[in-house]
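Self-study notes.
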Amino acid sequence: MKTYFECWAGVATDLFAQALAGEPELTEALPKPLAAGSFGFATTVSGDLAGRFAVVLDGSVLESPLLGEGVDQKAGWSELLREVADAAVGELLASTGKKCRVEKFEETSGESKVSGAFQLKSGQRAWSILVRDEVRSPVPVASTEPVTQEQPPALSPGLELLLDVELEASLRFGCREMPLGELLDLGPGDVVQLDRHVADPVDLIVGDKIVARGEVILVNGNFGLRVTEVAAPRKRLESIRCLF
């Protein structure tokens, strides 16, 4: 079932091609920090899905008259992105039956967390667009009954001695099986599509085991992980024990 993010991406691709000069192309890309001068707009959605959806653009896009000569480019982007937000709500209803509406559309100076990224290319120039997607199904009211949390397993004296040992952890964005012939034919500029959407959580890997999942964020210009899921303490410990 389509998410608001997917509906927004499809609508933006179509409307950008119609409204912007230079036959622009919008494609998904890996997120990267934006330079000073970036600007953006945030949409607040309510209904069957609710939350905030922010779009931040590379400030240098304002130097190109994509919206026409003599036009206030920032105001033009505001109008275009508002139109995309409204159309995405309509696309969501048409494709999933979920009823939503745009409650608020406002300017945002920047976002600390990134859910996905796009590249807007026109001619020889290209600009990055970062997206923060917090539009979700409403969370049901939590039960008032107390929740018993699993306690970490007791560590053996021998294992306690290893707690200060540093382990290499890596993030896995996705994977794909490829024939050897395709691997040998890879060259600069080729694109390898993975089995995971940009809005899906990424895996934190220790050894060959998944110990947590989360969302990619930017921290002082570097990639980071905001953890949203972790393995149960006992399973986490068992996955790490395989290294010893």
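Second protein, same conventions, sequence then structure:
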Amino acid sequence: METSRVIWVDGDFVPWDEATVHVLAHGLHYGAGVFEGIRAYGTPTGTAVFRLTEHMERLHRSAKAYGIPLRVGVDELVKTSRQLLIDNELESAYLRPLAFYGLGSIGLNPAGAEVHVVIAAWQWGAYLGEDGLENGIRAHVSSWRRIDQGMLHPNAKGTGGYLNSILAKQEAVKNHYDEAILLNYEGFVSEGSGENIFVVKNGAVTTPPVTAGILEGITRDSVMTMLRDDGHQVREANVTRSDLYYADEVFFTGTAAEVTPVREVDDRPVGEGRPGPVTRNAQDLFQKAVTGRLEAYRHWLDYV
């Protein structure tokens, strides 16, 4: 990964190489933390962060779900993110806010451990590759099931919960696929290892509901809104594995993945085996929105 100059750590901007954590930090041992992924884009009128406030609000919701006390408010996190981009001289970037328990407890109960809050920013290209954005990726249905709501909080970005995603991603890559698709314990499609999923059939767009164990993605919400505004029928409903095989189009959405087409699922071509018109429209709308070229969605941009 590319490095940048400074990282914000508990109120101070420190050099990249000095932003370290103690080996006995509680969060390192037990995955006790929450995080966000956010992107900043270059626009004709300067650098803008996409839906920055909503991301920081979700960070706070995730912390609340896991009982992690955050003493840094949304407004301060937003202001700090802007300054971090300025200090690192980044026109476009990926931002990673993270809150986690540090020293003070080594048992399961984190009481007494200090909560640290950091924000890093660096340049990061297409998560699933430029070729994936253009031609689509190969995915498979994982043998691992998505974490259940009776176990953890699927709709919160808890660090420990992503071990589930790591197992699915590693399995996919080992078997020569680009990405995994996880089913929930009822057998319905939930999401990718780090993305929400959309299925298109006969022009209608379907994405799994929150009750399917998904993260309620901000990019997901953006794409749903823009497609509806553009006249598409978009609904939230359970999706089956066979729906993936019968689909005309399938695509992923996420901050890192943006809008990535899926050209194959389990070695079966999706539609004609290449990105379809709805997917291309979603990609076009999204790229125009994040770069400030659609007036209707400029309120989603937080200019630096």
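Instructor comment on the second fold: The chain has a mean pLDDT of 97.
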